[in-house]
Write a structure and sequence with these properties.
The chain is mostly helical. 91% of the residues lie in helices and 0% in strands. It contains 3 helices and no strands. It has helices spanning 2-22, 30-101, 105-128.
Length: 129
């Protein structure tokens, strides 16, 4: 890149030297040298800015990829921690309760409801007689 810039500067100097010789001068004038120096500095600054922006763009591009990886990892961890593991825990606990203690929440609820209905029936029979 810098060689390309160097060749552009040299080509410009050669053109200016040819124009100066056509006009009958021995070399490039002071005004042209100052103008070239200013133009060269401006072009150098433009190239530095362009390289800086391209480097910043590359950093942002790589950062975006890393952030996406981290977000995917975080979401998968949240799904495992707050969805799969609790469901697995409750499944294993219900299996163990049924296996070792012959416990079933539905049968317990059914017995309680049956006892409540019997009490209500007894209360109705005793109050109606």
């Amino acid at each position: 890149m810098f060689l390309k810039i160097y060749f552009v500067f040299e080509a410009r100097k050669e053109k200016q030297l040819e124009k100066a010789k056509e006009r009958g001068h021995k070399g490039i004038g002071v005004f042209r040298k100052v103008e070239d120096a200013v133009v060269n500095k401006v072009e150098d600054i433009g190239i530095d800015v362009e390289e800086g922006f391209s480097e910043a763009f590359e950093v942002l591009k790589e950062g975006k990829k890393e952030i996406m990886k981290l977000i995917i990892n975080m979401i998968s961890n949240l799904i495992v921690l707050f969805l799969i593991l609790p469901l697995l825990y409750f499944y294993i606990m219900s299996f163990l309760l049924k296996k070792f203690f012959h416990f079933s929440g539905l049968s317990t609820i059914e017995k309680v409801q049956e006892n409540n209905l019997k009490k209500i029936g007894d209360d109705l029979n005793s109050s109606s007689t």
